[in-house]
Write a structure and sequence with these properties.
Elements (H helix, E strand, L loop, with lengths): L2 H8 L24 H10 L7 E5 L5 H10 L2 E6 L2 H17 L7 E5 L13 E4 L5 H17 L4 E6 L3 H10 L3 E7 L11 E7 L2 H7 L1
Parallel strand pairs: 1-2, 1-4, 2-3, 4-5
Antiparallel strand pairs: 5-7, 6-7
Length: about 210
């Protein structure tokens, strides 16, 4: 399915380029994840209705509507840019007018990622290089603090994974890589065209699975 076809199906607008320049050096330019890439990810790594996903730097909300529509999971979207946040809310109104009532919820927050308190129900966290490694470290530490409060298995999903992100996770945390999804027709030309998924499981959750 082409980008425009997905947009029409979800009744959202996330394709148009926005010439908004960020004055904050620790935050990167917004770019939506291609629908084709999301299709490849979800063919290998499914989400579930009981999941609560946090998307850091959600932009206009593409990932969030895609997951909510396909898997009926709850999604929390964090965006620091006021214009993108307003666009996401407009998309939410149009999306909810057309879709059937779902179990999962959609929540948008106009907030800096490093200041957002991680809810204990969150299980999956999505990053498309939204900010510097310094902020990434703060966010991951907040995520781990929430796991201390409520032990559970959590996954970090990195698209176009930054070397600095991976180095931190692999050398300074207990996260372990569990999956790599290389995008067809793209990875051979650009080895950043992939998803890398890291998991953290507490001893309690490991025991539960045995």
């Amino acid at each position: 399915m082409k980008e425009q076809e997905y947009e029409a199906r979800l009744h959202i607008k996330t394709i148009d380029v926005q010439h908004l320049y960020n004055a904050f050096s620790h935050y990167n330019r917004y770019e939506p994840t291609p629908y084709a890439a999301l299709d490849e990810l979800c063919a290998v790594y499914p989400f579930h209705p009981e999941d609560t996903v946090i998307d850091f730097g959600c932009g206009k909300g593409r990932l969030n509507f895609y997951l909510h529509d396909r898997f009926d999971c709850s999604v929390i979207e964090l965006e620091m840019n006021g214009q993108f946040y307003e666009d996401a809310l407009t998309n939410q109104v149009n999306y909810l007018k057309k879709v059937k009532k779902r179990r999962g919820s959609l929540q948008f927050e106009h907030v800096y990622a490093e200041s957002y308190p991680i809810p204990v129900e969150a299980t999956k966290f999505y990053f498309f290089n939204p900010f510097s490694v310094q902020i990434f470290i703060k966010v991951v530490n907040h995520i781990l603090q929430s796991v201390e409060q409520a032990p559970r298995t959590i996954d970090l999903i990195l698209y176009y994974p930054a070397d600095e992100y991976r180095y931190f996770l692999e050398n300074q945390t207990a996260f372990e890589q569990i999956e790599e999804v290389r995008l067809r027709d793209l990875f051979e030309k650009n080895h950043d065209e992939r998803f890398v998924i890291y998991r953290f499981a507490t001893s309690d959750t490991i025991t539960e699975r045995v």
